[in-house]
Amino acid sequence: MTDVPYASLGLVALALVLIAYLGYRLIEMRANLKFERWKADHSKAISREAIRGSQAAVAGRVFERVAPYLPDFGFNPRDVRFIGDPVDFVIFDGLNDGAVRRVVFVEVKTGNGALNGSERRVKAAITARRVEWSLYRIPDGQPGTDDGPAGIAASRRR
Asked: I need a surface site. Which of 76, 98, 113, 148 has the fewest CB within 10 A?
């Protein structure tokens, strides 16, 4: 007779574990259902926003390239050199006329676009007049220098 209470306790414990597990699974299923509903309701808006952002980026890259040809750009397109990063253009104002009056760095933005970190640092260096000229000469003996084919042959032997 003393074995009956232990068997009953075992069944009760098993029932409690089963109820807890089923309760956990029910809560998990409800949470997943709510998430799927939220995702279905908001995925179209998220997709539209992503497409809108992508279109703005593409439009910005197109305008970067055509900006020198727009009527209000203010510089001769022949004086403009595209760099792209960290600034869009370097303008050698007057170069086409034979007299460079100034060198201008230009960043093109559309809408409310703001300068990124690299662009801000370049702007700060330019406005602080930390700009200089440098000439780099290729050492003799390199392919394509004035010493001609001998330099090419010598570089191939190395």
From this structure: 98
